[in-house]
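From the shared-data thread, chain only:
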Amino acid sequence: MPGAISRFLSWMRTRGATFGVSVLFFHTIIAWRRRATSAHRVPRPWRTLRGAGHLGDNGGVPSADDSYLALYRARYVQRLPGRLEELVGPREGVVVLPLHVAWSGLREFRLDRPRLRMGLYRIVLAEGLRDDLCVYLNHELLVAQWPVLRTLISRTVREVWEAAFPELRDASSG
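Structure, as tokens:
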């Protein structure tokens, strides 16, 4: 690092900068780099949960990651309908999602196109509220495309839905 400092200071002097300004500028750069690199060392839930995925995977000792995962799961559990039959969304036609569900990207989906239908279901499962699930998802289509759809959604969403509705788990295994 001392070599880098002297190279930087000589570079600043050749451009007519004063010593005080160059040191101030250099310390600002160093502080910024330390913040940027230390952010990579800060444990973040989505990085530490990569291999775990389940509560209590750290030998039964509760951690911040477990509480984060529990809150994340609770977010999806509270949105679940009571029964799959409550999902009475359309089976055909065009569906336009509201902005609170599809806040970025495509909002209009043709249900006769399997890839678009899969995208619609993926977005609604991840971002939709309970009412959105019931309005935009159809239980027959959900069960029919679950074996592929389950690979496109997050592990937490998949586990919450399969725990609540065993017919989805059966559809993916059969």
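Residues 42-56 have pLDDT under 50 and may be disordered.
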